[in-house]
Amino acid sequence: MATTLHAFPAPLLTGSGSTAGPVADSSAGNVLVSAVADPAVDEQTATEAQERTAADVPWQVVVWDDPVNLMSWVTWVFRTYFGYPQLKAHALMMEVHTAGRAVVASGTLEQAEKHVAALHGYGLWATYERATGPGGSGANDDGHGGRF
């Protein structure tokens, strides 16, 4: 068990009359209070830290290859919607065409959902997924890959 010592100004604890409580440190004018660390609190703090880390993992927007849209249209959408320069838009379009998919953006879940909805408005096949990393599974939590 870990013990933590906290120093408090002496006037806060004067008049308690307890001999088992605070110990006076007359050289600093403070009273030292000993507290025993609670393992349940330490475990809860560790769990909260893991949940925050998992929540911090960004979401990715994935555009999938489809037999309908022209490559020039996909490039134009990437330039128009995301504001990507021609070379980046073309490279992403070629990744979609050759690999079957490309991650075109990442961010919060709300941002990913907004991007996917906008890309659907342009007629592209797009989904969102949790980015791989600590706590990231690579697929979104609802099991349908962000498809509407």
From TrEMBL:
Q: Name one Pfam family in it.
A: ClpS
Q: Where is the Adaptor protein ClpS core domain?
A: 58-127
> Can the keyword Nucleotide-binding be found in this entry's annotation?
no
Q: Kindly list the biological process annotations in GO that this record carries.
A: protein catabolic process; proteolysis
The UniProt keywords, alphabetically, are:
Hydrolase, Protease
Q: Which Gene3D superfamilies match?
A: 3.30.1390.10
- Molecular functions (GO terms): peptidase activity
- What are the transmembrane regions? none
Q: Looking at the record's lineage, which domain of life comes first?
A: Bacteria
Q: Does the keyword Protease apply?
A: yes
Q: Which InterPro entries match?
A: ClpS (IPR022935), ClpS_core (IPR003769), Ribosomal_bL12_C/ClpS-like (IPR014719)
The subunit structure is: Binds to the N-terminal domain of the chaperone ClpA.
What does the function comment of this entry state?
Involved in the modulation of the specificity of the ClpAP-mediated ATP-dependent protein degradation.
Family assignment? Answer: Belongs to the ClpS family.
Q: What is this protein called?
A: ATP-dependent Clp protease adapter protein ClpS
The record lists the organism as Kocuria coralli
